[in-house]
Amino acid sequence: MTMWVFGYGSLVWNPGFDLREKVIATLPGYHRSFCMRSIHHRGTDENPGLVLALDEDAHSTCLGVALAVADGAEDATLDYLRERELISSAYLEKHLEIRLADGRHVEAVTYVVDPHHVQYCGGLALEEQARIISQATGGRGPNDEYLYNTAAHLSELGIHDNDLEWLTARVRALRA
């Protein structure tokens, strides 16, 4: 049985594991947003950045990518993803049904934000998000680089996210 992973942020452009297939997919009941403070990868304890997370909302859907893990790499991939995504326990690992662009329905390992975690910051105004993203840097680099990479790769796939597009333009202006 194929192991699927749902990507909506950095997994879109930097999955870090061998793929058998990559397909546009829709996840119902969640939306992509900069609702998690990053104190490791894109910020620090002293100057937290923001990273994307899936925030639960029954009326929303998130367009992203379904990543089929290469045969035989399932255990190593799950270990890798847990080390990467569960670094501070702000994400919860769930197995959720997604709909692939070709009509198939599959279950995918999906990392969603824990709204009760101290790093959760849902509801921040876009201007505040832009200010934070423009100033933070963490262990994996500047926060704005994460935003630019994610927005560009989603756009290349034909996935348009109005908030990410606005944030990209605003952060570029703030950094100019």
From TrEMBL:
<dbReference type="InterPro" id="IPR006840">
    <property type="entry name" value="ChaC"/>
</dbReference>
<dbReference type="InterPro" id="IPR036568">
    <property type="entry name" value="GGCT-like_sf"/>
</dbReference>
<dbReference type="GO" id="GO:0005737">
    <property type="term" value="C:cytoplasm"/>
</dbReference>
<protein>
    <recommendedName>
        <fullName>glutathione-specific gamma-glutamylcyclotransferase</fullName>
        <ecNumber>4.3.2.7</ecNumber>
    </recommendedName>
</protein>
<dbReference type="InterPro" id="IPR013024">
    <property type="entry name" value="GGCT-like"/>
</dbReference>
<dbReference type="GO" id="GO:0006751">
    <property type="term" value="P:glutathione catabolic process"/>
</dbReference>
<dbReference type="Pfam" id="PF04752">
    <property type="entry name" value="ChaC"/>
</dbReference>
<dbReference type="GO" id="GO:0061928">
    <property type="term" value="F:glutathione specific gamma-glutamylcyclotransferase activity"/>
</dbReference>
<keyword id="KW-0456">Lyase</keyword>
